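Duplicate of #3305? Posting structure anyway:
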């Protein structure tokens, strides 16, 4: 059973009907699924993400303003060789890579649907993505798992916070609500480099900076009962001698602490906000 969706390019309004299997909607974890629409699928000039609800109604679009660097000829690699950023983007798309990196940093279990005849290169994929994370987090990070399409119906993902990706249809069922701006930023920065090691270095460093800030926030929260976001940002800036981070970065850090540690931390921040609201 399939469903027809009419997708419209958010930039130039070119449209095209695509069909999507019904099972995707039935398995959707959090109500919205994202469809990665690569160059050429709907519009020859723009790539974007379509947000679709479980009834199959398109709720919105987001464009991805990033051009893929075409790897120089001769770089074409065989299936068995190691992953690189360019190769991973070529295989999974930009949004696919944002999602996979997001799942790794924030520790969401992730499943990729595969056909029976597909090569299971999850080991190489995990090794590649894990190289972006600090070593001490690796033992506590879910591996990305490939599952055969035939077993898809058997697993119950509905109630769990998991990322489910069908790359054949470019469909993503994501357990998070946040936009992947951080991932987009670090990938964009890395793509300015041609050398794989330099790309790796940049991504690793950006993630390390983020995690350092998160760990410092965690320390601050452990020493307090409740705190305003504004004060938290100021204290972080003083403690690390860094410019003040913005609210969206702080919210992302609190999500990281929720996912990786406990919900106690972010509750301390909210508590203060509630007190303030009661006071009004
Ligand atoms: Zn377009």
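Output from current build:
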């Amino acid at each position: 059973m399939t469903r027809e969706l009419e997708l419209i390019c958010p930039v130039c309004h070119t449209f095209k009907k695509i069909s999507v299997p019904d099972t995707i909607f039935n398995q959707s974890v959090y109500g919205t699924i994202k469809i990665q629409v690569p160059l050429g699928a709907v519009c020859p000039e723009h790539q974007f993400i379509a947000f679709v609800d479980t009834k199959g109604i398109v709720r919105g679009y987001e464009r991805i303003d990033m051009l893929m660097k075409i790897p120089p000829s001769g770089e074409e690699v065989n299936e068995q060789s190691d992953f690189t950023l360019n190769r991973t983007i070529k295989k999974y798309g930009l949004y696919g890579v944002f999602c996979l990196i997001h799942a790794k940093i924030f520790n969401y279990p992730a499943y990729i649907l595969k056909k029976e005849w597909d090569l299971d290169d999850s080991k190489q994929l995990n090794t590649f993505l894990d190289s972006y994370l600090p070593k001490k987090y690796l033992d506590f990070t879910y591996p990305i798992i490939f599952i055969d399409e035939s077993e898809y119906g058997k697993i119950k993902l509905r109630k769990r916070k998991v990322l489910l990706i069908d790359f054949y249809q470019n469909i993503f069922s994501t357990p998070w609500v946040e936009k992947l701006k951080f991932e987009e930023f670090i990938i964009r920065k890395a793509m300015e480099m041609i050398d794989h090691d330099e790309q790796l270095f940049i991504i690793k460093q950006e993630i390390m900076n983020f995690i350092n800030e998160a760990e410092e926030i965690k320390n601050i929260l452990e020493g307090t009962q409740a705190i305003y976001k504004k004060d938290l940002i100021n204290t972080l800036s003083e403690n690390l001698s860094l410019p003040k981070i913005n609210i969206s970065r702080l919210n992302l850090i609190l999500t990281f602490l929720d996912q990786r540690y406990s919900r106690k931390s972010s509750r301390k921040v909210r508590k203060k906000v509630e007190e303030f609201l009661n006071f009004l």
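Confirmed duplicate; merging threads. The radius of gyration is 20 Å. Residues 2-184 form one domain.
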